[in-house]
Write a structure and sequence with these properties.
Shape of chain A: globular
Number of strands of chain A: 7
Distance between the termini of chain A: 45 Å
Largest interface: A-B, 60 and 60 residues
Strand content of chain A: 25-35%
CATH topology of chain A: Aminopeptidase
Oligomer: homodimer
Number of helices of chain A: 4
CATH class of chain A: Alpha Beta
Strand order of the largest sheet of chain A: 1-2-3-4-5
CATH architecture of chain A: 3-Layer(aba) Sandwich
Radius of gyration of chain A: 15 Å
Number of domains of chain A: 1
Structural class of chain A: alpha+beta
Order of helices and strands of chain A: EHHEEEHEHEE
Helix content of chain A: 25-40%
Chain lengths: 149, 149
């Protein structure tokens, strides 16, 4: 199966938002998605884009996406933060995840970032297995903290 | 003791970098700081600033800082990410941390972000106590992942 990777466009957002909701369901937190396509439009394709994304496609259309933004690490400087790496359930195991992941590494290197950072749920073994193939350093012991306005 | 909060300036960077190293030491990871003042200058005060910060001052000078950037949550939209909240050891317990924290909340609200996000080490009880005062939601179960170039 032929999979190609390209930069995400504004018209992809409705499909991307479906993928985001699919991932939130998988991560057992569907109620936490308060984002909207309209908000994604403004924040990704307005005057000051906060995020960008890559999509993976095959002959049936979009089968996955990698959404990323620039994070600032005071320890290591600017880095690419991989917010979501998502492959549609029926297309998993075909290499789309690796292709998207490698595209993000490539982008970060090109931009002169110090590296790439992301998070993974400690029970998401398929994802952990993928990241280990790339010699990622996985670290426990941090709590995520949120204050919603 | 009078503590005032103001926006950080480029000339504050050498002092801020000392605070960052102090925090990394407290977090038992001083060897992870590969950032430099020069890099902080470029990434914070160049053409496309990636981060900003507030400083807390009293009559003796800078006693703390809050370093932040815009993160993109696919679940909740653009948010303020509080990268580091640091108060010099000899000035802790005087309220500088709360003032800096509240300033960040205020900034995020003004910018129309959906909320504030940050991380805390699960053994850093004084910080956890502070965050609980603000009804922050703290969540375990995520691994931090890094790939350095």
């Amino acid at each position: 199966m032929n999979i190609s990777i390209r930069e995400g466009r504004e018209e992809d957002l409705p499909e991307i938002f479906e993928l985001i909701k699919e991932l939130a369901l998988f991560e057992k937190a569907p109620e936490q998605v308060t984002n909207t396509i309209d908000r994604m439009r403004k924040e990704g394709f307005g005057d000051n884009p906060v995020y960008s994304f890559f999509v993976a496609e095959n002959q049936s259309g979009i089968i996955g996406a990698a959404i990323h933004y620039i994070r600032y690490s005071t320890w290591k400087g600017a880095r690419l933060f991989l917010e979501d790496l998502i492959v549609k359930e029926s297309f998993r195991g075909l290499g789309a995840g690796s292709l998207l992941f490698e595209k993000c590494i490539e982008l970060g290197k090109k931009q002169g970032y110090s590296g790439m950072t992301w998070q993974v749920l400690d029970w998401n073994q398929p994802a952990i297995d993928l990241y280990n193939k790339y010699n990622s350093q996985l670290e426990a012991g941090w709590l995520n903290a949120n204050l919603d306005y």
